[in-house]
Amino acid sequence: MQNFFVKSHGLGNDYFVLDEAGLSFSLNEKNIQLLCDVHYGIGSDGILLKVASSEADFGLRIYNPDGSEAEKSGNGLRIFAKYLYDYGHTSGKVFTIETLGGIVTAEVSKETDGKANLVKVDMGKAIFGSHQVPVVCDEPECMDIPLNIVDETFMINCVSVGNPHCVILCDKLSKSEILKYGSEIENHPMFPNRINVQFAKVVSRGEVEILIWERGAGYTLASGSSSCAVAAVVVKKGLADRNLTVRMPGGALRIDIDEAWNIRMEGEVKEIVSGYLSNELVADVLYL
Hints:
Helices cover 19% and strands 43% of the residues. By secondary structure, it is an alpha+beta fold. It folds into two domains: 4-123 and 269-287, Diaminopimelate Epimerase, Chain A, domain 1 (Roll), CATH 3.10.310.10; 143-260, Diaminopimelate Epimerase, Chain A, domain 1 (Roll), CATH 3.10.310.10. The protein has an 18-stranded mixed beta sheet that branches. Strand 16 (251-257) and strand 17 form a beta hairpin.
């Protein structure tokens, strides 16, 4: 099945999956941008590339629409797990996936007519150490640290869940605000690897609402790793319980955090379309 792809979404955050073994070309920054372009390519929030792994059942490379590579993606992992299960790469409902951000365990927790539609992912540990996030900060942990952006000062809380996150707690969420400041925060010199940004409002001890600016992608409807990062921060600050729901414009995820800061995420995933890259598109890809 040369150049076969499957496009799916997790709460409106969409990726398409390619199998490295079935591609007639190699991915690079330019052709990733083309493939993710809504006008000239398939259109997507990113690409999930199935690769071989000697450490886990499957290997995964995650590419942002700007061509950069991400360490981990919660929605991407659920989409990838659905692809593996639906297309017969595994008959088991529990399996491991190696990412740049570490090895995770995925579980198909609900299926309909042999297709996965609810997936749990073990997202690893929340790490708060400034140097491990990484963030340039004089404190051992970057919690409630002021960040000056243009005409505004934000109190930031930084955490890694396999990729870096900057959580800003708010009394009121504003899409216009995250659109105005998201890129400035993502690319601030404090963050040597750039950073994912979340504005978060604690609704109750069991519920948080968030808006997301995703590194390399911009404003996005949902993000699994962002949900995990926000949950970890509000739990650490004593504002929420360890079992909570994170709501985003695209939908909600269930997040569980144990005493050792291991995070488990569960949410829906749905296929949009599958097919083959056309000869014309492949020709354009090969040109780049």
